User: What shape does this take?
Amino acid sequence: MAPRVLISDKLSPAAIQIFKDRGIDVDFQPDLGKDKDRLAEVIGNYDGLAIRSATKVTEKILANATNLKVIGRAGIGTDNIDKEAASKKGVIVMNTPFGNMITTAEHAIAMMFAVARQLPEASASTHAGKWEKSRFMGVELTAKTLGVIGAGNIGGIVCDRARGLKMKVIAYDPFLSEEKADKMGIEKVELDDLLARADFITLHVPLTDQTRNILSAENLAKTRKGVRIINCARGGLVDEAALAELLKSGHVAGAAFDVFSVEPAVENPLFNLPNVVCTPHLGAATTEAQENVALQVAEQMSNYLLTGAVENALNMPSVTAEEAKVMGPWLKLAGHLGSFAGQSTAEPIKAINILYDGVAATMNLEALNCAVIAGIMKSVNPDVNMVSAPVIAKERGIKISTTNQDKSGAFDGYIKVTIVTEKRERTIAGSVFSDGKPRFIQIKGINIDAEIGRYMVYTTNKDVPGIIGALGQTMGASGVNIANFTLGRTGVGGDAIALLYVDQPIPDDVLAALAATGKFEQIKPLEFDVA
Assistant: This one.
């Protein structure tokens, strides 16, 4: 059955056609996002939800999203999505960070011109039949210092445009390297330095716990007299009440805001102040940007639903279509290793240690980590997936660590998973063979070569005669067919293991019969998702 996608906001017809051309059943209901109750009623029928800003994806709606796999936001901001609830539900949240970069950057530049020359007030005055030429004295941008807070995708474009205007550009961005700053032709500075030096300050960071109120009353007081402040990023980055007071006192010469702490903004401390330019969140409001983000979200959602490729996800590592093809068997292996470890451990898990060797160490380790953790967590919650598993592990206080190393043995690469509990450690390793099939290659330090089937039985025992006979005879007497049989041991008379791949689930009475032989230390039925 083809995946089903609901579009609950207005989206370009070209985006709808992309879904259809890819073989996806698309339901276009552009006003449904405004009806929360109705959306909650029908959301369980869909694999994907494509939205803009009007639809609010709340915890209540997600509670009914029994089949939902992905939410695609045509745009950058995802404040209208409960990402924590989505992650716990196992739903990927994607945005489209590149479709409106130029549009938003251009709006910031336009706002900077507007506040530098008081264009909106001058226009309103002239429309009113006044001719107040001497009232609207502006300043040039040339040779002024622009302080950019956040020099990423959009901020980087603003830096480039500002340099074209012959401005001196300084930037505060903890993730910006000195080398990158040099290539961009800008100066990397600390925030206090930027506040003290900038004639204009423009913000281009997301709203997070670290950036909330980054221009607080305290920081605004550190700015130089006559500064002009532009915010086309997110409401909540600036203390608007404190800024209003500094505008009234004349310390701040002007401000231009496209975003506000409360939206829609029907009232705000900045409204009706002289030389404050306000627009209603128009940063992405161009024909080109609207089309770009719509097309991008349709492509991303289609790729995920049809191929498993994850692009621009906010709650899961991205995996490109090319990576998905190469990594497919390794992701399956990672999941199987986690599943084996989880199913064979009944005690609370304190830590998960993952070793990547050889070719495995060159892959997308974040995605492989998610697959391992999901495999482990599924032993206690079958509904867990790669999105929700890391969240659940974190909630339980499980520490995750990874190590990667160059090729160290006979295999081109392998993954080894170690689970740490209060009482013991359990280790299992696996590799992907040339036929593309994942296989277990080591359990408890004992080398094996085991094909992975849906139903398996794992036993531990001392290396003594009669083990093979006991397993074969008990299975045969109960009508359980063995598809594959793998043995391993530490040495003569030492610890030994057996891994049987069987054609059907092992009945409880068969497990009891094996235990009754007295030959086994542990007998564990296992089940793997090999689809």
